Predict the 3D structure of the following.
Amino acid sequence: MSGRDPLCPPRRARQGAALTLVFAGVLVAGAVTGAFPDPDHPARRTTTVPVGAVRKEDVREAAARAMADGTSPMEAAERAVSRSGDRWGAVYSEGEYQEFQDSLDGRYTGVGLSAAREQDGRIEVTGVRPGSPAAAAGIRTGDRLRSV
C-alpha cells in the first residue's frame, strides 16, 4: 500500500516540536542566568539623578580645590574623571577643546596637501588645497616627496 504511514507523524510536526523545545530552552537559560531585565531588582533600577551633572560638579570642585592648594587643576580634574568610572569622560584644556570642536566641524590644522605612497615606495602629492601653506610653497599635484 502506497502513501503516508498513519502511525508515523509528519516530519514538519517533529521539526516544529524540536524548534519549540529549543526556543523554550533558550528562554529558560536566559531567565536562570538573569539575562532578562528585572525592574524590581535594585541593581537594575535606573536613577532619576542625572549622573553627568553630578560628575561635572565633582570635577569643578576638585579643580577649584587644587587651584586653592597651588597644584594643577587639570591633573585634579583628570583624577576626578578617572575615579568617576566613566570610561568615555575626558578633561580638555581650552585649546584642546577648541581643536576638538574644529575637528568635529571639519576644520583641521595642516599644510594643505594630500599624498599617497606609490607602488615603488615613493610618496606622490595627490592634491594641494588652494591658499594653503603647501600651495604658497609651490607644491603641486604630481610632485614626488622625499622620505626623511
Summary: Residues 39 and 45 are 6 Å apart (CA to CA). Residues 113-145 form one domain. Helices lie at 11-33, 51-69, 73-84, 94-104, 133-136.
